[in-house]
């Protein structure tokens, strides 16, 4: 668990400012959702927290440490993407343990971490299957399992459910909420889906054109939007 703080973070690609002066603090154990229309900078912001993208300005702190220039592996974060490219030739267990094996972790540690993740994600009966023998939801759970085995302080999710059908999305939302209760980690979840944001978030960060429009609980944003954009996006009349 760790607090995530962004201080005046900005990002430009060439002459295009994609993230503009974003400051915010996500508390330990909080489930924060970044929401906003396509292209507003959600993924870029998340990738900067993960260390997959350099900042153009500002500072990022995780658990009190300045990680602005730290390598991704040294930040204590694990990211789950929308396209959960699993290795097709590897079993579920091997997919989940890949990172730990590359890091030469002891066999017993790997087995216990994979076992624990499989239990949390109800994948215990599927550990020896290959990805092609799994449903879409099970595959996405394997991708989440890959993150869990790394014991991250912070989970970062980039639209992890957007490739799933509507029914499965609803089911996975419930599972992710449960995962958050079980693990208690800080989680940052990116989506362009208002319903996901409203149902999953402790606090929602509404982004527009690389800036924060409003931060608040789902109830705050729904009942007391700061402006017409937030009202329109979150869906309450004004
Ligand atoms: P979102 O995830 O909210 O849809 P992104 O963070 O992916 O938005 O993108 C924000 C903006 O930055 C978009 O206009 C996108 O085209 C631009 N962008 C993202 N990555 C790059 C890149 N590597 N090079 C140039 N522009 C980029
Ligand atoms: Mg994105």
TrEMBL record:
Occurrences of domain ABC transporter (ranges): 4-234
Name of this protein: Sn-glycerol-3-phosphate ABC transporter ATP-binding protein UgpC
Example GO molecular function: ATP binding
Keyword entries, A-Z: ATP-binding, Nucleotide-binding, Transport
Annotated organism of origin: Mesorhizobium abyssinicae
Parent-protein residues present: 1 to 238 of 351
Record-stated family: Belongs to the ABC transporter superfamily.
Keyword Transport: yes
Ranges annotated as spanning the membrane: none
Keyword Signal: no
